[in-house]
Amino acid sequence: MNRINQLFHTKYPIVQAGMIWCSGWRLASAVSNAGALGLIGAGSMYPQVLREHIVKCKAATQHPFGVNIPLLYPDIEKLMEIVVEEGVKIVFTSAGNPASWTRILKERGIERVVHVVSSAKFAKKAEDAGCDAIVAEGFEAGGHNGREETTTFCLLPSVTGTVKIPVLAAGGIASGAAMLAAFALGAEGVQVGSRFVASIESSAHDLFKQKVTSLNEGETQLTLKELTPVRMIKNEFFREVEAAYAEKISKEELAKLLGRGRAKRGMFEGNMEEGELEIGQIAATIRNILSASEIIEQMIDEFYEAKKKVSLISFTSSNFQ
């Protein structure tokens, strides 16, 4: 059993990412019931809505699950109060300074705190803050992303060479083969987002799920770095953002263009042109909508199949002459 399994008491070292508008209690509980770690994505939830999802998730699974909380949200104190009151034992934080909450959460009964980073520098800060593990998320990932634009397979060895706590790889991980590759670079687990968006239990709108499974290479892009970098599908809203950049509008005007509810309009309500559609580059390889348990089973089978193939590869120095 590796350290990720030991930390979260899971069968498999797979974590389902906490994605806005996509990862409610149905997905989190289904993932946990299948032997991985499910996360409720608090980023799109008002405090009372988060409480409802936690209560329903506790009723739907006897296995560990967690909550992902972006630290940049205005209701952060209320969200943290709720996870403590409801007895949540695992919290993933992102988009902020882990030192501001890690110690407080642990003092109030949270057993495991994990922080999402996009650089080795911030991985070390998270370790020093007392985090139990790190999610090293590369440039390929969907949703809000790091400004560094470091790809997952460049980021991983840098982070694993900097910290001693376990590292989960994220960004571009949607198969068992990618999971094996991440392990080869020092990861002890993976966090998977885009693949679970296209799941039966995902709370994403069906039109968004279908859109994800039809994407080709190059149809997502990281943008809005002046606000919070986000990778999204190139649709009519994305073209509005591009036009705004061409006109060199201010940061404040960009924020106004983004407005409130753009992500909800797209991913949750199904407006494929006017909504903000967040997804990772790996979506170009996703071609079907499966149950969470089928996704996990498939990833594990692919992992061992890839491992077997790698073990059969042999070479000598003459191969490179």
Notes on the structure:
This protein is an alpha/beta fold and 321 residues long. The chain has 2 domains: 3-204 and 287-312, Aldolase class I (TIM Barrel), CATH 3.20.20; 211-281, no CATH class. The chain contains 14 helices and 11 strands. The protein has helices spanning 3-8, 25-33, 47-60, 76-85, 102-107, 120-129, 152-160, 176-184, 194-197, 206-212, 236-246, 251-258, 262-268, 292-312, and strands spanning 14-16, 38-41, 65-70, 90-94, 112-117, 133-137, 143-144, 167-170, 189-192, 220-223, 230-233. An 8-stranded parallel β-sheet has the order 1-9-8-6-5-4-3-2. The protein has a 3-stranded antiparallel β-sheet with strand order 7-11-10, with no helix packed on it. A hairpin with a 6-residue loop joins strand 10 and strand 11 (230-233). The radius of gyration is 19 Å and the shape is globular. The mean pLDDT is 93.
Features:
globular; 11 strands; eight-stranded parallel beta sheet; TIM Barrel; alpha/beta; 321 residues; 14 helices
Contiguous low-pLDDT stretches (5 residues minimum) are: none
Series of H and E elements: HEHEHEHEHEHEEHEHEHHEEHHHH
Number of domains: 2
Number of helix segments?
14
Q: Remind me, CATH topology of the largest domain?
A: TIM Barrel
Number of strands: 11
CATH class of the largest domain: Alpha Beta
State the assembly state of the protein chains: single chain
Approximately how much helix is present in the residues?
Answer: 40-55%
